[in-house]
Amino acid sequence: MTTATTAHDELHAGAAPPPHGWRRLLAPGWLRVPWMSALFFGIGLGITLLVRWAEGWHPIWDGQVITTIELVAVPFGFLAGIGGFDYWTRYAIGSPTQPEDHSGHGAYSWRDYFRINTDHKVIGVQYVVTTIFFFVAAGLLAMIMRAELARPGMQFVGNQVFNELFSVHAALMIFLFIIPAFAGLGNYVIPLMIGAPDMAFPRLNALSFWLLPVAGLLMLSSFFVPGFGCGWTGYAPLCSTHQELGAVFFNMGVQWAGASSIMTALNFLVTIITMRAPGMTFWRLPLLVWANFTTSLLVVIATPFIAGSQFMTMFDHIMHTNFFNYEAHGYVLGYQHIFWFYSHPAVYIMMLPGFGIASEVISTFARKPIFGYRLMALSLMAILVLGFSVWAHHMFVSGMAPWLRVPMMVTSVVIAVPTGIKVFSWLATLWEGKLNFSTPMLFALGFVSMFVIGGLSGIYLAAVPIDIHVSDTYFVVAHIHYVLFGGSLFTIFAGIYYWFPKMTGRMYDERLGKLHFWLTFIGFNATFFPMHYLGIQGMPRRVSDYAPRFADLNFFISIASFFLGASTLVFLYNMIVSWARGAPAPANPWRAHTLEWQVSSPPPVFNFDEIPQVVGGPYEYGVPGARHAVFNGDRVIEEEEVNV
Amino acid sequence: MSAHAETQHAAHPPVAHQSSRVDARTLGMFLFIASEVMLFGSFFTAYFFIRVVNHQPWPPHPFHLPVFVAFVNTAILVTSSFTMHWSLQSIKRGNRVGLQAGLTLTLLMGLTFLLTQLLEYARIGFTPHDQAFGTIFFSLTGLHGAHVLVGLTILAAMTTRAYRGHFSPEAHNGVEIGGIYWHFVDVMWIIVFTTVYVL
User: Fold this and answer.
1) Helices (H), chain B
2) Mind listing the pLDDT tens digit for each residue in B108-118?
3) Which of residues 185-214 of A touch B (CB under 8 A)?
4) Between A120-149 and A490-504, two packed helices, what is the crossing angle to 10 degrees?
5) Domain boundaries, chain B
6) Could you tell me where the DSSP H helices lie in A431-548?
7) Which one of A122, A219, A615, B159 is most buried, counting C-beta atoms within 10 A?
8) What CATH superfamily classification does A111-401+411-581 receive?
9) What is the DSSP letter of B21?
10) Is A611 on the interface with B (CB under 8 A)?
11) Does residue A12 surpass a pLDDT of 50?
12) Which CATH class is domain B24-60+68-198?
């Protein structure tokens, strides 16, 4: 710890001394948060009342309108208080901007994780820990749901509360866990993998992290205002006319989470395009970087559509506009088209980074080069393009134009082709490999097998007749959990175990890791596989009660789901104890070739003392003499450079 | 966390390798604009559904759109794009007065546009509640107005810095990137004007 302190002091040499006394209230940080939030609350309230008074709108004091405005104003106050806008404000009012003294970089104590930090590695850890918090919260909501569903009839919660439970469960899992967890892992490893000292826009990166807790707290607090119970899809007109204030909390939560995800995606794209190490051509990028590149393109292009759809529902709800109001010539189905135009690409936003993680892990632990590297990258691009042409397969029973059905069915089936390419490539990579079944590999293999099941039921659902039969049944619940739990969550676990030594500098407990995998794998299948059958038999989803003939299977599912929930405790215990007391990790415990493993664990504050020179592909395992990169000292001159 | 930060590592980051000829901040602005275009796209989709799919008359019977006022307003905003361009060209040649005058004129014209639009709102004779038509009219022009407001904030910051002497022929990135946003706001208005008022 003493050496770290020295480094810290060196970094701060020349920086202004920390403020004392009341001036600490003005410095960015938690002391400034309360009064800044209160100030912005006052400003929001003042402007609203002033405008309503000046325009003569009655009543001047409208609780719904004021709450909606405050859901924008107070988070801005929080972000300004914690210091998200300091640099830009100084720039905007024309003050001299301080040259970067790197005081916002690195973490030297646990306190540094609770402030605006511009170090992509700290932000990555902040992301992962925050998202795991919301993962546990959303998982507990699911446990309450399963408790209610264990027996037919009503036991613990009422209908409205049940609606709120599954709505918030899905919203948190999607917007506050899966999407940002991938963003967090990407944040940590992408700059390291491409040989960059940091992200392209470190301050934007810090700001986009701090939007997340805001979004998550909005969604969680929707329970305490009259709740949000129209499903995470928030369909209009159900969610725009017949709901309480909680729906607005969801609308605004999505806006904050979406803004965070757009800013991160923009940052990833610029970083990957402009900051690659010399020799790191696009065809030498690790597949995780390729996957995040594609995902970020999807986020930048698609996410504004969900922002638009949530604005429209909110305006219909609060301002009584007529976007989706049939009586005033609004177009009711418009919401679903706009929403799914984002939310279908969003399933790829939730899956492609997982494909990247699986590629890293499988290649490293099979000690073989990825099979068909270029086709792996190109199939990501194919999914990106096709992903925008399939949205209406969510709307086969919505009463949309019938001629849209068959084209959407065909594109939905076609998108299985690039996905299939990836699955076969993983299998071919495993073929005759020297497999090492460590925890990350187990989760990656679990992902491949479970994702194939989810993908197959996806092809069933893409077919119009089957979809009409099982729409809004537990078959759909089973499908989405095989894709998002068996797919995304397994790869997130694989990624967390894989990079845990790099992130914390300590090894996790391998025995507990394996135990966690097997408990999760068994619990997951026992919970979700029977739901296929329930769905085909016609048990509707999103209903708190069911026919007595489904009772036995539901009781089994509930028991299995508690078992699955308990398996997370093993994970949490392993992570916390290993982070505090695990054995120190070597720089490269997995003998991987990619650049993040060529620096110490955890990496130095600025990643590299000198930018490495990339000389070959990232997965040349078992190829004699192959190297991915060389560092200063043993730098070789590339043929291309000689020719130029 | 167990910080193993070792002292022999550098206290300053190594200079990142520039792997593309594109400037990072310009690229960032273009990507941001791409997502803004998609946000407008979602509202244009709603416009399409209501006007084309639902065959709504445009404008429906008792209402009228003040096309002439909007046309004059369009002319003002288009002109402001030219003054914006002029200010950037000026600072590239080292003409600081041209920069300041260009930015000030752009800012004033942007303000005029926004105020005219607010006046138009007050006198237009319908509200966002008046059928889906009113909703779409106010949301498309209002979304654009919000972007003008953001553009004006950026312009105000640029103008402040220009008067403080912060830009030079070598360092005018701030003017260039802010200018790109302003041109985007301008082009977007031409599309909104054409679809909402003219067609």
Assistant:
1) 24-48, 67-92, 96-123, 131-163, 173-193
2) 999 999 999 99
3) 195-198, 200-201
4) 140
5) 24-60+68-198
6) 439-462, 464-470, 474-483, 490-504, 510-537
7) A219
8) Cytochrome c oxidase-like, subunit I domain (1.20.210.10)
9) S
10) yes
11) no
12) mainly alpha
